[in-house]
Design goal:
7-stranded antiparallel beta sheet, 5-stranded antiparallel beta sheet, Transferase(Phosphotransferase), domain 1, 14 helices, about 30% helix, Phosphorylase Kinase, domain 1, about 575 residues, alpha+beta
Length: about 575
Amino acid sequence: MEKLWLVGGGLAAEGPDRVRVQLGAVIARAGEGTISEIVDHPQWVAKVFHDDLKDHDLKCAKVAAMVDTPPSGAVQSDGFAVLTWPLHMLVGPTGPVGYVMHRIDTSNAVEIHTVSNPTNRAKPLPNAPQWTPHVTWLHLVNVAANLCLAVEVVHRVDAVIGDFQERNILVNDTTRVTLVDCDSMQFTDTAGRQFLCGVGRPEFTAPELAGLNLATAARDKPSDLFALAVHIHLLLMAGNHPFLRGTWTGPGEQPDAMSLAKSGWWAGGPGSPLHTHPLAPPPEFLPDNIQRLFYRAFTAGAHDPASRPTAHEWRTALQGLQIRTCPRGHQLPVETEQCPWCHIEDERSTRKTQTTYTTKARPNQTVYPVSAPTPAKPARNTTKYLIAGVVTLVTLIAVIILITNLTGTTTTANTTTTIVTATATATAIATATTTAAPLNESTAFDRLREMADSDRSFVAMNLADRWVPQLSSKRPGVFDEGVTWNNVLTLQEHMRLKERYGAKLLWSGDWSTFDGSDWWVTIVPTTFNDPEGALAWCRQNGFDSLHCYAKLVSTTHSISGSTAHNN
């Protein structure tokens, strides 16, 4: 594109005062468009939609309406972008082609599941930011409060996040949060024209939306508040989803997550037959006011979405939360007498002594518990003691700094035991980093095994016996695309697909529809009733028949008839 101009957001659409811009280097390629730098404007980036994007004109009309109605606080007083809200339209000789948004620093940012999931947090990939192993429970509360701030900002205008999932939430090493992919949000312009959000992840979808066609069904803000509560639960409760992990005490098999959500039955909730998992913290360890907010979100909110707490209510409660440290070094609310992390630590130790483990993982073994918490254990050598002391000292200094330097609308502290959310806290995270071990075949296998185990419960609950797009199947020694594959290359490929499509990882030996038991399989968590739907997804996303096909994932179905290819 040789000629591009910015319009909207206070810039004229016609005349000589239009702002001319030139695209620079490509930053990323997404499903809907390409993200590029803008020459001479390092504070911005441009998203140019693909020419063949479905409903291109409707998308541009939606973005233009968003440009005309920016929510207050989308960019904080210190320049931090809480939302990547469209700032200006990007117009070419033939009309609108995309939009401009604030550039965010992603060098030390991770998707929120990287901090909420203890396994992901403890073992970052070598090319990922290395501060996550040093995240404390205090930091996780900070993240939750700053996520609430982002939701507050969105809800200041007639907008609903809609696709309120992990990939669209970035957390940086200051515990601050940015919501991205804002052009996918549901938005209503000043004339009442409504632009819908047609996608959503099942595990973050409110029960009142169950069974609806999201491409045609409008959402209300309480649906965001359900997803917000799920994210807060994941952050505070060691990565445990309220409707996916627990001990089922009711009749028959445990219902799927949506059925539980519709019934208001969440793990450890009042009267719920889904009890707290032995390796998860119970809701009772939280202060009463936080418990009541979860009750309103999941129990009362199952039948009355209007009763769910607002983002502001959540943020106020999280700001007031005070913590103490138990003798083993775990952080917990000051009101809590018994440390849940000590109990989990002891329970895990007991289980290890009662179980005989083999030295090498087998395909049908669950070696790493799904969403298992990783409490900080006592140091066992002087080096570890020194690191722990430095982290504690830096964190204390950060809190003191926050008390004397309150800025912007970011959550702040009143005492040394009050949870705070500000950039100084993250300095403690960032300065306590260590050098990660090089990625080799053994560590890559362990990481793949962890991811497959972590994804298995979600797949079983939400994708089983449905058709999904399959993007890859690899095992060490396979020669494909001019490369002899190993675990390192497989892990790198899967992470790329996960980043772009939210892909899930399967170990073929866990499922009955694969003819080999030792393959790493990457699938897209979008389900269809028949193979034609999955094949259409492959075509729409530009995949040929060799790199994307329809697969039926099941533990009961035979291999026969479980795969379909585009012609």
